[in-house]
Amino acid sequence: MLVNAVASTDEYSDANAYNKNEKFYADPLVYTPSDGLTGKLVASKTLDAPFASVDSNCNDVEGTVDITGTLVIDFSTDIMYFFAKGYFNGLTGHKELFKGFTSFVSGFPVEIGGPSDNYPTRYFVGGTVLQRPGFTTVDDSIIASFCGHCDGFNFTGMLVAVSKTSATVTSVMAMGVSPGAPSPQATVYTEGSGGKGGIWQSEMGLSTDLANNRIIFPTGNGDGIGVNNGLNVKPASGKIPITTLGSTIVNFGVDPFAGKLTQQDYFQPLNYAKLNSGDRDISSSGVSLLDSTTFSGGGVNRVGISGSKAGIVYVVDADNLGGYRMGVNFLQEITFKGSFYAGLGSYPLEGGYIYMCTTGQALQAWALTTDALGRPKFKFAAETNFTLGCHSTPTVTTLNGTPGTGVVWMADSSKGLVAFHAVPVGGLLVEIPVMRTGGLMKYQRPVFGNNRAYVQSGANVMAVGGTPGPVTYS
Description:
With 474 residues, the chain is an all-beta fold. The protein folds into 3 domains: 98 residues, no CATH class; 229 residues, no CATH class; 112 residues, no CATH class. 1% of the residues lie in helices and 34% in strands. The chain has 1 helix and 33 strands. The strands form 9 sheets. Strands 10, 11, 12, 13 and 14 form a 5-stranded antiparallel sheet that branches. It is globular and about 60 Å long.
């Protein structure tokens, strides 16, 4: 797709943010019916005043908090969906705004609020939560996940479904409720002990299996030892739902007609309580669902991989996540130096590889192999000869799926836009020269369209591509 985009004659375009004090946190979307070459502003819409960071008691998002999760475009209707955090009728709150490019769709915006399906006294309170991961669509449902502001306030992670056609909230599921969550529940929003288990994923999107109407994601630190009671409880099947999902990889089904969310399966590491108390949660990296044609075998049809702040990668069977203390209830556990603040990439051609990078370390490639039962397993294959900031999910492109054309891209916080041949040579991931962008915003990944790669740095969107012509700025 982008082999011409690595030539020394590539062009570079730069578009500024609409307001000088704004920063881009969500990834850009590429809408190819319009030409994105010049960076010229085509359309804009002013929403309500954004939520002030000072009101969140957390400065991870500087200045103001508005649209922090990556948007999505429904190409069947040309409607763009997004969540925005602001002040509604003078009250703080997270609200959902659905719009076309210049006007709201009939029935929207919709304010998100109210009780959760699985515990009616656990309410969605918008002022205490943040929508960080990119969200997804399953049939008629828009599905988003929510975490806390620096784990402050009385909050628990929330998964929310909204109908595109009826413009109504169809389901709200809380990640930490009774029994197992702290009790009695605090009644003041400024107090903690709300269950936690936020879903933030370093802004990686929710992994979606449309064929099976399900989403799979990891959660953050939970409050306390939860239902599984640390190391003092008997084994628990992941197929039996639990009420405390802190530091857990969880599978939720989505009813394609009613939009209801149902917990179907989970995996909770043996030391989850220690991860919770040490702020080493596994929601710092989303779950990557690997190509089932290549990454399967030995009775495993679909593989999921996820990293953590503890530097551990969990390789799981997406159809049988493993529950808790069910023997060796995962396919593989790989430990790294540093922490994961990004997802993991994959390449299903030429034998199959996965790519991962912990903070301040080299980007590594691990090759697909099998264990004694023929199930997928990975072994170290190569790494880069320099270190990176590693706050970017590796993204792999090919030229129409042709072997030998795989390229691994990163929008790195220290090195900027970088690219490597997907297949290692002599234990090395070989760099491909691309135009230098300088360090980029954390939690970003390159986005591609019309032979160009789009990346973001603070208040700028940059396009690097192979189309001849002068460099333009706006």
